[in-house]
Amino acid sequence: MVQKSGFCALLLFLPSFVYSWQEHGLGIYLSLEKSNYLNQQKAVVANELSTFLTESEGELELFLEELEKKTKELFPHYPPRPEELAFRRKASSGIVQRFAHAIRINPELPLVLYRQAHPKTPCGKHPPYRKPSVFGVDFLKNYRYCRLKVGERISPLEVLVAASDEPDHGLDIGLFEDNGSRHSRLYGFGPQPFGDPRLIYSSQAPFHMGFYHEARLVFWAAPFLKKTYPEVRIFQFRELSRFAFRQKNPYWGYRFLGWALHYLTDLTQPYHATVLPGVSLWRMLWINFLALLGFPRAKEEAINLVSNRHTALEEYQWRVQKELLEKAQYDHILIKAFAAKEFRHPLAYFPYYPSQVVAKEAWQRSSILDNLLVEAFPQSYVLDPSFSYTDENKALLMKTIVELGRIHEREKLDEELVYLFENFGAHSRFFVESALQEFFRENAL
């Protein structure tokens, strides 16, 4: 019998590469640009978060209290917010900090006004903005942002595009008590359930990865894997969006909805919905058994390989998208895929839709995708557990794939990406359109 503590040790240092679809805004733009319903909506006026919070402070206190109550009822593994963090009107601390503490996000993320540039919509006359994140300037060096002024009008699509990437800028960084941040011991999330708490990027993993469909034995042996919170974030930010529209502030209504959309689309990525893609349950048990005997190498190699394949996939799909869009190849199958599929779900949207529909689809494709990556990519990138990604070899990835001449293998990988992009787009449209229709219907009453 495998000891529970040993199995936990196996999974404690899950791959700490936690970014799902790199630069979400690219896929979100392509998914929503032809949404007839979204395109019918008027441009909105950009305004500061502090303005929105101040104008709705009294109602916000009641709303956030009710939101906390609903969240605890819906999600059994949700750690309740400490009572001292409850939002209180006219308290002494700044209103943005009180809000950040009440919903337990990183209060250091600069929630400034900006638009994310897209190959179809460059900044134009707008001055660039270089650092809407908590990380160093190099983190976003390949992205382009345009400053917005208070009172400037912006389309709902552009708000959603920029906001959909924002959670990767540090919204969930340093929230666990062993992360060493100024707010980590206040928030009540307990120790980081998996990943290395010393790595800044790793601390957001439990909010962006959702393991809902692993074997029962996995959850029995490693119950901390249930401590994943993308579904919670989706619910919280969707409800905040509803509140903002009710308060007649559509800019923040769309921006909060874009935040929720980020976590939803995270779950369309197989490496975010599966613990160790490509590693069977019995192999996990075997390498764990070896680790218990004092031979951890197999465990470390399995984790490094999965992390490297995750990174390879993200670099590949991002660079392909950027290249096709910059060359205006809008008819390419990988670009058209985002808008190609109409999603018809028999039920209206419900709080467990992200886990029971979106994540399940991704989980079912994880082994297929993992095998295709091994076939199409250079062996050093996906089969060498000692390989370490650098900016230089990331940049060489596309060139190396072409030089290998694995045209057939790359075509099969692209076919799988088409399937994943179709799901990404269909779920994005369904999520946004169903939410807006629901919110607008409520406000019309």
User: Unreliable stretches, pLDDT < 50, 5 or more residues?
Assistant: 1-6
| Structural domain tally | 1
Shape designation: globular
Range of strand content: under 5%
Number of E strands: 4
Q: What class, by secondary structure content? A: mainly alpha
Mean pLDDT: 88
Largest sheet: 2 strands, antiparallel
**Oligomer type:** single chain
How are the strands ordered across the major sheet? 1-4
| Helix content class | 40-55%
Q: How many DSSP H or I helices? A: 20
Terminal Cα span? 60 Å
Radius of gyration: 21 Å
Q: What is the element string, with H for helices and E for strands?
A: HHHEHHHEEEHHHHHHHHHHHHHH
What does this protein structure show overall?
This protein is mainly α and 445 residues long. The chain has one domain. The protein is built from 20 helices and 4 strands. A two-stranded antiparallel sheet has the order 1-4. The chain has a two-stranded antiparallel ribbon with strand order 2-3. It is globular. The model is unreliable at 1-6 (pLDDT under 50).
Structural descriptors:
single chain; 445 residues; 54% helix; globular; two-stranded antiparallel ribbon; two-stranded antiparallel sheet; mainly alpha
Detail the topology: elements first, then pairings.
Blueprint: H1 4-12, H2 24-32, H3 36-39, E1 44-45, H4 49-55, H5 57-74, H6 95-103, E2 114-116, E3 145-147, E4 153-154, H7 156-165, H8 205-208, H9 216-221, H10 230-246, H11 250-266, H12 270-273, H13 281-292, H14 297-326, H15 333-336, H16 353-376, H17 379-382, H18 391-395, H19 397-404, H20 407-444
Antiparallel strand pairs: 1-4, 2-3
